[in-house]
Predict the structure.
Amino acid sequence: MTSLTLPLKKKFIVLIGFMGAGKTSLGRSLSKKLNLPHIDTDYEIEKIKKMRINNIFEFYGESYFRDLEQDTIINIISKNKAAIISLGGGSFLNFKIREFIKKKCLSIWISVDIDTAYERINNSKNIRPIFSKMKSKNELEILLNKRNLIYKEANIKIEAKKLNKSRLLEKVLFKINKYLENSNENC
């Protein structure tokens, strides 16, 4: 299962999905399993600015953050040979990022339902700037449904609701292999 040959044109596996979907955790596991570096774009942005994401939002605003996010993601993909990349929840909504990923990467949508997302976000130590402005679970669900319309453009969709970490990893590896078997992209 771990002998995975990515298509020649697409040397990156990009994990997309809503906040709390488990993209970073899955990214680390995939990285170990496939012996590829893992890059978390939010962490890279924090290193660049030397501040937490919520502070960037607070001091510079969301528009500034989104521009920085776009530059960072395109730069990461342009300068690396291959990697597992975990995107922030809003990254794939950016048209330029999305089209760049479609050309250069294999994208995997880690899909979660509202209850799972809400529970994980509430139990997380991370302060999520978008979530902190919301007044209810219903507002979060509206955002989730809106973003799902864009996330569905990913190459692969994984329903992660009831999967533990090891089962999720197995399912992702299986789906990647299936995708590669059925893809003409590796010629």
